[in-house]
Amino acid sequence: MTWRPEVEEIHRRRRMAEDCGGTAAVEKHHAAGKLTVRERIERLLDKRSFREVGKLAGKASYAADGTLASFEPAPYVMGLGAIDGRPVAVGGEDYTIRAGTGFGSDRRKGGQGGFVEDLAHEYRIPLVNLVDGTGGTVNTVKRKGYSVWPGYGMDGFERSASLLGEVPVVSAIMGSVAGGPGGRALMAHWSIMVRDTSQIFAAGPPVVERAFGVKLHKNDLGGAKVAVDTAGTIDNAAANEDDCLRQIRTFLSYMPQNVWELPPSIAPTDRPDRCEEALLSIVPRSERQAYNMRKLVGMVVDKDSAFEIQPTFGRAVITSLARMNGHVVGVVANNPMVGGIVDVKTARKQTHFISLCDSFNIPLIFFVDVPGLLIGVDSESEAIMRFGIQQRYALAKATVPIYTVLVRKCFGVAGGSVFDRAGLNFKIAWPSASWGSLPIEGGVKAAYRREIEAAPDPAAREAEIEAELRALSSPFRTAEAFAVEDLIDPRETRPYLCQFIDAAQSRLRTQLGPKLRAGVSP
Fold first, then answer.
1. pLDDT above 90 covers what percent of the chain?
2. How far apart are CA 37 and CA 33, in angstroms?
3. Is residue 315's pLDDT more than 90?
4. If one looks up domain 4-142+154-253 in CATH, what number appears?
5. Are 412 and 372 in contact (CB under 8 A)?
């Protein structure tokens, strides 16, 4: 006497679940350029590491004799797996089954809270959401017989919110996502979507057409060009689903398992004492001439270690995860190729990145070439001062080591938002650097207006004052006063920083755990 019949039934139902929504639904899904959720999970995780949970959940009907007549799997697949040998919780909607909508159980597998989020919380492991569900539907009122509150049910956003202070959370938008699933997708430290095949919006084109009489393609309403490049709703875009899954693995390679651990260091593949000769001439003598900041950063961090966050949004600043002598760092670098000036999008991007790095004990390096905040009526109408101060507030709250490299310009409110004033306040400058409340060229006319206007030759007097102040503004004079901690040969930047970042690891080990976020952001 064995339990073989029952065990065989378990395996039969598992095979039924693996069929997703059936051959026709899967073929339609593939024709749209999309992988099924099971294919996504298989390609994301280490080989043979996925342990699915709740595979038998779904809706079944039975014949009169009690045998299974039909079975529709729950439209959500989730469980425990590994990426680079480290455990992760992963889950996603199965769009081939009723467009990934819920199946009405009291206990959710995931998507709208549920087991997969609890797994990440209880085991303190990263959570990967592969989001491909449409969320609520108006027929809920018919099914239940009454209307329900938005976000009804056992699982609200509470666990999603708490996870943001505990473990890395990644959301990948893999299809057309609206409403509740879209909102939950944004409860993440980093998000990504696939160009052309995924979209995110508060409500889809049919609802927009009904409300405004405007007919839009779903990409025009919530595709990557809008959500990633213009609005910054989603951080990164991928060329296809394989690229999306590769980027997820890359992002998590810089993250610790949780806030109680340090980010994973790797054996150095690059000499810490490497000095690049090209750094000596990368910054032009003309302040009006641009240069390649990405190339500059690439010559300082470990070779080929930079992974850029939000590369197409807020382009006046570059935010990247990278490594220095094998240790994870966060890089914030002003981009002179687009002016380097801080507008609202740039300030939002920088603020979020500072908070991300601080939450996971990642030291920050600033490569500074910032003329200031963007001025003008349009910028003021977008609340540039509020968003500009928010990035300074985030920096003031940060507890990780911060290193500031003054490359060229550093002026105004934006220039004051790149220093570790609450900590070591450690700044090193290149001989190309200049700083102050205002650039001399614009500030002289305002500060010495009467003297200039009263001079026999106002233009000549303005030039004389500028020359006098420029001599006093020499970085050598600031270094003599120890008002900047060091003035260095640009080629020394990497070995200088590597030594301090190596030394900071002892400090980082003493401050693990969730970060207190007391106070109200400006």
1. 63
2. 13
3. yes
4. 3.90.226.10
5. yes
